[in-house]
Fold each of these.
Amino acid sequence: MDTILSMLIALLLLLTGCGKADRIDTDTTLPPESPAATGSQVAVPEAIQEIPDGYFEAAGEPGTLEDLYYDTWESFSYEEKTQPLQKHAVIYLPYGYDENEKYDVFYLMHGGWGNENQTLGTPENPSAFKNVIDNAIENGDFEPIIIVCPTYNNTSPEDSASFSLALQLNRNLHNELVNDLLPAVEGKYSTYAEGTSAPELMAARDHRGFGGFSMGSVATWRTFQNCMDYFHYYLPMSCGTTLDDDNIFAAAEGWGPEDFFVFIMTGTDDFAYSYVENRVEKMRRSDLFTEDVNFAYRVKEGYTHGGLSSMEYTYNGLKAFFGGKKPSNSVTSTAYTVDTPIEDVISDPVFGDYGRLIFPVDEGYWSGDTLGQLRLTWYNYIDPDKTVEICNYMKDHAAAGDVIFYDIYSEAEKAADPEKRDTGLFFFKGNPGEKFAVCNAGGGFAYVGAMHDSFPHALELSKMGYNAFALIYRPGWDTAVEDLARAVSFIFDHAQELEVDTSCHSVWGGSAGARMAADLGTYGPGYFGGEDLPRPGAVIMQYTGHTDYSENDPPTYVCVGTSDGIANWRTMQARLEAMSALGIPTEFHAYEGLPHGFGLGTGTVAEGWINDAVEFWEKQM
C-alpha cells in the first residue's frame, strides 16, 4: 500500500506541477543572456537565467494568438483511419507578422492535466507567459518566431488525467504530428517549408523545434525518437518518468553532431530530477551525444516541478535556439578599430541600452571622435590599442549571447531615483567558480573614467582566470560608495548564477575609485546601505591621497607615481606604514617620475604592476 501511495503522489506531482513554490526574486534579478559553450551550435546559457523584471507585463509590441483547427484521426487506430477527429491548436504570431517573411517555428506541448490552451492561453484570454514571449522578442532576446501549442489529448482534456493513457497518446503522437499538424500549420503560415509534402517539410527541419514540460517532455522525447527528419531542436524539460532511452537515443544514429540539438533542464528540488540525471548520464556515455555540442544539461538550484520553472526553462530554450540569428536590430561582425567613431560603439545595437555607459555619460569630461582619439580628464597614458581591445571584447561577447552588463538596482528603484539608471556592473568573466574582483575607476567624483581606469584592469584579471566587474557609479562620494556597496551585495546575492567564489574577494580602484575601495574596506558594505557582508580579502589602490583607516582594514596594496600632482605618494606611503604597524599586511610601490592616472602603466616603469597586485591578493587567500 505504501508503494502504491508513493506512486500516486509522484503521479499527482507530474500532472499538476505542485510542490514547493518556485523562488521569485521581486527585487533585482539577473538579466538574460549567457555565453554559448565552445563548439556548441547554439547559445546555451552557462546557468538557467531568470525571466527579466517586467516581462510578465503587457509588451509595447504584442504578438497575436489564433485558433487553428485541423483534421486528423484517433490515435490508437490512426493507421486504419477509422475514427476521424477535428483537433485544435493555438498559434502565436509575432508582432508585425508578415506573410512575405519566413519564420522559424516551435511546437510547444503542455504538461499533464493540461490542453492546448494551458501555456499561452487563448485569443480571448492570453496568459501571462504570452507577455513574456512578446517582451523577449521585442527586446531582442530571440528572433520573431511562430509558436504552435497543440495537445496530445485524443478526444478530451480528461485524456491527460490518466497517466498511462497520456503515455500511450504521446507514444502515438508522431503520426498526427508529421502527417496532419505540420502540414496544417506550415501550409497556412509563412515558415521555411516550401510546401506541405513530406520532403518539403523535412527540408525545413533546421528551422523547427519541439519542446515541453513534464508530460510535454515525454512528448518531446517521443518526437525525438520518431520525427528526427522533421525537427532540429528539442527542449525536454523535467521529464519525470522512465522511458525506453536506448531506443529513443538510437534515433540519433546516422545524424552528425551538427544535425540536432537537445537542451535539457530541471531543478534540484523537482521530483523529476533523478529521472533526468539518469537519462543525462546515459547520454554522456553514448557515442551519439557530445555535451555542449549536440546536447546541453542545466539544473536550477532549488527549483521544483512548478509553473515558474516551466516558463523559465521555455524562455531559456527559445533564447538558446532562436536568439541572435536574425534579430531585427542585426549587428555586423565587423571589428572596431582605432578609426571607429566612439558614437558608433555607444549606439551599437549589440549593447542594447547600456552602450551609453561604456564611455562617461557626462560628455564634458572626455573628448575625441574615434577610439584612437579618446581623451579623459586627469588621465595620462591612454592606450588606444587597449581601448579597441576592450570594445571588441565587449562586442564579441555580447554578440555571442554572453551577459556583459548587470543592473544593480530594480526598475522601481530607478524610477524613484532616475540617476540610478546610470549605474551597473560590466562583467569580464573568468573561470567558473573562481574568486571575484570589483574595479572602480576614478574621475574626481565628477565622472567615471572606466575605459582607462577599470575596464583594462578587469579585462586583465579575467585573462588570469578571475571574475572581474567594473562598476559604473553615480559621481559624488556618498552616492559612489553607496553604489559600490550595492554592487558587492548584488554579486554575493547572485554568486551562484554568476559562478563566482565570494571568499576573499578583492576591491580595486584608482584615484576616486581607490578612495571608494578603501572606505568599503574600512567600514564594510553594510555601513553604506549594502548587506552585512565580509570585508574584502584585499584592497588594491592606485594614486589617491586617502588617509582614513582602522585596525580592521583589509590587507592593502598601493601604487602611485612620484610626480603625481593630485595624490602625493608620501601621503599614501604614510597611511600604509601606519596600517602595517597595526599588523595589517601591506605593499607599497612608488614609480619614479610617473604622473597621475597611469592605469595599467603600459610602456612605463609601472608596467606589470597588476601582476604584483594579483600576487599580493593571492597571498591573502
Amino acid sequence: MRFQRIIRISLSALVLLILILNTTGLVNYPFVQQLEDWTYDARLNFTRFNTVDSRIVIVDIDESSLAIIGRWPWGRDTLAVIVDNLFDYYQVNTVGFDIVFAEKDASSGLKAFEKLARTELRDDLAYQRAFEKIRPSLQYDRIFANSLQGRNVVMGYYFKPAISAGETSEIGLLPTPITKMDAQWSERLSINRAVGYGGNIEILQSAARSGGYFDNPHVDQDGVFRRVPLVQTYQNYLFSSLALATTQAYLDQPPVELIVETAGSQNGKTYYALEAIKLGDYRIPVDNNGSVYVPYRGLEGSFPYLSAHRVLTRDIDPVLLKDKIVLIGTSAPGLLDLRSTPVQNVYPGVEVHANIISGILDQRINHKPAWTIGYEFVMLIIVAVSMAILLPMLSPLLAAAGVVGIGFLVIAGTMIAWENHLILPLASPLLLIALTFMLHMTYGYFIESRGKRQLAHLFGQYIPPELVDEMSDSPSEFTLDGENRVMTVLFSDVRGFTTISEGMDPKQLTQLMNALLTPMTRVIHKNRGTIDKYMGDAIMAFWGAPLRDSEHARHALYAALGMMDELKIMQDEFRSRGWPEVNIGIGLNTGAMNVGNMGSEFRMAYTVLGDAVNLGSRLEGLTKFYGVNIIVSQSTRASIPEFTFRELDLVRVKGKNEPVAIFEPVGHKNDLEINVKSELTRYKQALTGFRSQNWDKAEVDFFNLNRSDPDRKLYQIYLDRVVHFRDNPPGSNWDGAYTHTSK
C-alpha cells in the first residue's frame, strides 16, 4: 500500500514538473498556449455584455452601398460629401477611417482633360476657359482634403512588419507621431518595430487632424484577434493605433504617456517593462508589447451599423449620429476586412477598433500583468500537493467529486479576477488537475481494479468484438439490469420460407440458412448493431444498447440497406448451388423500449421489450403487402433527416388503435436522380388528392404513376382503394388510415 502511494505521488510530481517547465519558459508546449487561448475565449464569451454601445457608430461600406453607389473605390468627391454630411448635417464628434488612401484619385478624368489642354485643344480658347472653370470640381483629392480640413478626422494607415525584395518601404505620408522614443526605452521595450508603412497621400493626411494604423502584428498563432497593439514604433518614433488615435481625438487630444516600470538591472542595464498607456485621465493597461486584449462586447452588431449610402443621401435620423464617434469601414466580404475573433469566426475588422474604443472609454480593458507567471507557479504547486494527498485516500467516486471541487475553486478564482479586469492563467492548473486525475485513475484501473473490466465481456455473445473493446474503456456505464431507453429495433424475415423449406432436405435448408444469416449478421455488426436472437429464418436486432448510440436509427437503416445489397450478391451463389431465390422483408422502428437481461432462472437473454418492439415486427410483416423490401416508422424517418423516404400509407396495425405513418427509404437526398425526385413529387400530389377524397384526381394521378412504373405494387393498391371508396365513401371523419387485421 505504501508503495502504491509513492507511485501515485511520483505521478503527480511528474505532471507538475512538466507544466512548471512550460510556465518558467524553459520548455514550450504550444498546445498549452492553445488551451489557454481557448479558456480565455470561454471566459470572454461567458461574460460578454451582448449589448449595443450607441456612442460609437459604424458607417458601413456594405453590399447595399456598393450596389447603389458603385464598386469600391468610390470617387473622393463622394467621400467628401459623406464627411460633410457627417459633420455639418449630423454633427458627429469624430470620424475615423478604417481605410487607407495610398494613391491619388484619377477617376474624374482630370488628367485626360489636362492632356487635351496641352495638346490638341491648346489653341481652343473656349475649351481652355471652360476647362479652367470646371478644373476645381475635378480635383477629387483636393475636394476630399477640404472636407477633412479643421475637422476631428483620423485617417487610417498600416505598418509593414517586413519588406519584400523590390517593394517600397514607405508609401504616402505618416501622421504626426506621439513622440520620439528615448534611446534606452526604444532598445529595452518590446514594442513592435515596423520596417515600412503604407500611408495616405500627403494632401489627405495633412488635412486630417491625426492618423492611426489598423494592422495587427500580434495576431495569435490560430489567426484569432485577441490582442491588438495600441502603439508601434517606426525609426524610433512612437505612433498610435486607429482606436487609440480616434479615442484621443474624441477626448480633445489629451497627451499620450507610456507608463514604464523600471526594476533592478540585468547585465548592468536597467530593466524596463511597459505597464500601461495613459491617455489624459484614462489609464489603459497593456502588455509589454503595448497590446491590449480586445474587450469584445458581443457578436457582430455590438455597435450601430448605418449603410454609407444612407449617410450620402441623409436618409438617417440625426439623433442617431449627433456627437457620436463614427468609424467608416466595411463589412462587405469582397473588401476583405473580416477577421477571426473569440466571439465570432467572421467578424468585421472595423468593429474590432470600435470594441477597443468602447473598452477605453469604460475603463474595462482586461490585463495580464507580468506577476501572473509567479501566480501560475504557486497555483500549480498548491493544486499538485492537494491532489497528491487527496486522491490516494478517496474512492473513485469521491476522488472525482474532489477533482471537480478543486477545478471549481480554480475556475471561480480566475472568474473573480476576470471581473476585476485581471487575466489569470487557467489552462495549466486545469490541465494539471485533469492529467493527475487521469494518471491516478489509470493506475488504479490497471493495478487495483482489474475485476471491473470483466463486465463488458458479459455482452460478447451479443455484439461484435470491436464494441466490446469500447465498452471495456468504461465498464461502470454498462449493466445487465433492465432500463428504459429510446432505441431502434430491426426485424428481418424470409418471404415464403415455408414453401422454400418444403422443397429442400434438412441438410440443404441448414446450409442455406447459415449462408444467409452469416453475412446478414456481419452487416448488422458492421453497423454497430446488437443481435437479439435468430428465430428460424428471422433476425431480430437492436441499436442503442448495451453501448449507447446517439445515431442508432441511422445505423439501423444503413444496416437494413446493407442487408439488401448483400442479398443481391448472394442470389448468384444460391442459383449456382441449385437453391431457390430468397427474398427478405425488413421492418424498423424507433422508440422507448425496455432493455436488459430477461428470462428465468434457467435461461436468461439480453433483449428488448415494449410496444415499439412490437410495432417493428408488424412493419416487417407489411413489406410483402406493399411490395417493398424495407418499411420504417415515422419516428425512425424523423431521426434520419438527410435521407429521402416515400410515405407508403397511414395504417392501423394489429394491436394498435392509433394510425401509424409508414415509409420506404428511397436514398440519400444528395444522391437522388431527377427522375426519382419527379416521381416522388407526383406521388405526393396523388396521395394528397386521395386523402382529400378527390377520387377523380387521385385516380388519374395514380393511373399515370402506375403506367410509368407498373412493377410498383403501391400504385395499384391505391387505384383499387379509389374504386372502393368511390362506391363506398369513407365519410367526413375519415383520417385516411387503412386498418390491417393480420400480423
Amino acid sequence: MKTLISIILSFALLLSFVSCGAVSPNDDNGNSNKTPSQAASLKRDVKYDGYTVASGITLPFESTVIEHVQFEKTLYLLTDGGVYSLNTESGESKLLFEADYDSIAIHSDILYLYSSERGEISSYSLSGELTDSFSSEDIKDWNIKSFVATDNYFVFIRYRYQTEESKAVYQIATVNKISKQLEVAEEIKTGFVKLCPYKDDTVLAVFIDDTGAPDNFLYTYNAKSNKFEKVRKIAYDPASYCYDACYNPKADTIVLLMSTQFQPLCLCEYSIEDDENSSLLNAKVSEWNQGGSVSIYENIVSFFNDKDTEYRYFDYQNPPEHITIAYYSASSMHNVDLAKIIRSYEQENNVIIRTMIFEDEDRENLKIKLMAEDDDIDIFSSISVGADNCINTHTYVNLADFESLGEKISSDVFVDFASKTGEEYFGIPYGIFYTENKHENPIGFSAIEQYCIKNINSETGEYLDESGDELYKVLKYHYENPNGSEEEFYDFPYSTIQTDYLIMNPASKKQEIAADFLEYFFDAMNGDIKLTIAGEETSPIYSPFIELESTDNIYFMWKFQADGVLQTLYNAYHASLDTDGSDKALKDLAKEAARSFKMRLEG
C-alpha cells in the first residue's frame, strides 16, 4: 500500500471567453456578463486552524477511488467496492458499507450517493447508516459528470450525446430534495463543466473549453432560480481540462484539480469575489495523466488519483519556496514558451512559480503595484508596463549583480545588446521577432518608421524633432506618394527587433531564487538545456534568442516606438492624406503632432 506523500505546489495566473450558451450561461438570460478586474494578489490574511496530517497513511483496500468528499478532517471515499472513511489526522481508515454507486456528494453531515443503473439517490449518516432512499425513472441511466447537494436540491451535470435535435453536449438538472421531483433539465453548450457546493442553494460552475482556447469562466448557479451569473475569467496553460473542484470557505476561493498542456495534473486556486485577490495557485500534483478528486479542510487540500489509492495533500501552512511572475495575458506563442519553461523549472527545482496574468484593462494595476514596491511580485514582463518606463523609473534589478547570470548575458552578443542600459542589464529578452534588412522590403509605413528610428529614443526620453520640421517633410512625402515610391524618403539600412523582457522587481525579497530562474530561462532560450514536461522532452522554443555577428543598424522597436504614445505620430501620418496637401495644412498637422507626442512622451 502506498504511503502518504507531500507534493509541490505551483502558483500560476492565464484568460478570454469560453464558448458557453444554450439555455443556461447565456447572455439572453439577462445574467451578468461583467468580468471583474484580474489584478491578482495572493491572499495573505487567511487564518487557518492548522492541523497535521498523519504520517504513513495506508488505505485498507486495493480498489479504485471513484470520488471522495470531506467533512471536517474525515474523507469519505467512494470506491468500486463501497464507501470508506479516512481520518486524515489520525490516519484511521475503515469500510463504512459495501455498495454500488456512481457518484457521491455531501451536505452538512449527510452523505448522498447516486446510482445511474437504479436511478436512485440514497442518504447515509457519517457512520454509514442508510437514512433515506428514493428512485425515479427521470434520473435513471445518466452519465454523470458532476453531482452536488445544496440546502434544498441535488444538482447534476450529465453528459448527453449529440443528436440532430440536440447539439448540446451537457445538461444541467436539479432534483428537489423534498418532493424528489426533477425540476430542471436544460442543455448547456460548453467544452466542459464541473460543479462544487458554494452557499445555500448556489453552486460554483467551472466552464472549460478543452479545445486549447485559453478562454474559460467561473460562474455561480442558483438551483432555486435556475440562473447562472458570471464571476470571472480563469486562465490556464493551453489545452486545459478540469477534473474536480472544491470551495475553500476560509479564503473564499475555488480550488480546481486540472491538467494542462504542460502539466499532467495540478491544483489551481481563484478568488471568488475579491477582485484584488483573484489568485491562481498552481500546485503540481504528480505525473498523473488521469483525473481525480479534490477536497479541502482548514490548511489541508486532499486529492486522489482515480487510478490508484495513493493519498496526496498540500499544506497551505507549509508550502514549498515560491516566486511570482506577472505578465500580460495576450495569448501569444512567447507566453507558451514561458509556460513551458516555468513547468520544466518546477520539475527540476523544489520551487513553485506562481503567475499573475493581467488583462488589457488591468495593465495600469501592475504599474501601480510596482510603484508601491509590492514585494509579492518577483519577476514581471515588460509588455505590461513598458521597458522604457522600467528603465526611466529604475524599476529593475541590475542582473550583472548576479555573477553567473551576468556572465552569461555578457557572453552572448544578442542578449548583451538587447538587455543593456548604460552599463547595467535590466532584463532577459523573450518573444523575439527579428526582421532583418527591413529596408529591402519597404511597406507603406517605412517612411514614418524610419523617422521614428532617427528621432525617438524612449530609453533616454529623447525626441529630436520637437519643432515638427522633419515630420512635415515626411507627411508631405507621404501625401505625394501614398503608395510609396521607387525613391524612398529615407535611404539607410535597418533591421528591427520586437521583444518583451522578463525583469526582476527591485522590491522582491527572493532575488536569489528569481535570478536562478532567470538563468534557467536564459539557458532554455539559448538552447543550452532541454526542457522536460512530465519527464519527457518538450517541443522547442518558439522564438529563442537570435544569433548576431554584429549589432550595426539594428533597432529595438520598444525604443523608437515609445509604448503608448507613438500613435500620435502615426495618426498624423494617416491624417495627412485627408488634408488639401498644402504646406500650411501639413506643417500645422506636423507641428501639433510633434507637440502632442513630446508632451505625452514626457508623461
